[in-house]
TrEMBL record:
Name of protein: DUF4898 domain-containing protein
Annotated organism of origin: Acidianus sulfidivorans JP7
InterPro entries: DUF4898
Domain of life: Archaea
Amino acid sequence: MGKSINRSDDLLMSNKESSIIEALEIAGNYIVCERKRVIPLSMISDYEKFFRFIISKNTTKIHLVIPMSMTADSSKIKNIIESIIPYAEVRVYVSDKIRENIILCSDFS
């Protein structure tokens, strides 16, 4: 099972790490996952190719946190991920706490 996040640990984190933790805090709850990846937007030129490469075939649940600047692409990204892993539960969140990265949290079977 994924590791839960302790807010008291924020004092030991850099500003970047702290903003990532805040971005994972959605509606007062923490997203808990088995694997968390912080991916710079500069690494993504084609959503489909990128997600086909990075998402494991045994993924059962995906939480994707994207910056506000990508709001218009949120449905497109969700549809692409669902086409790659049709049996996985996919949730896309938009956050104003991140700007240059996306956060991909995955659970596996």
